[in-house]
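Reopening this one. Same input as before:
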Amino acid sequence: QVQLVESGGGLVQPGGSLRLSCAASGSDFSANSMSWYRQAPGKQRELVASISSGGSSIVYADSVKGRFAISRDNAKSLVYLQMGSLKPEDTAVYYCNRRPGTPLYPWGPGTQVTVSS
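Same output, byte for byte:
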């Protein structure tokens, strides 16, 4: 069974940048579209970005378009989320998983991103 482990979060000032990583164990990673999600305190988990298995198709939530970039390295079973121009409203726990509408893997622990001065 695939296990997901997110990393790279932290405390950053508004306008700053962070790069999140998601390590996925398991043999079928490269065959699946992957997504980043986030959950802010008191809110539902929301989709941030998705990338197809080969990386050629990418979709972003309107709230992060132009500021975040999703990418993947299938050889290393890694998915990345490069985040720039961060805003306080980007504060959340960030998770990776398969794209919505597909059977999700067990959720990983997530990585906390806090944007504050």
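So the earlier flakiness isn't reproducible anymore. For the record, The chain has a mean pLDDT of 96.
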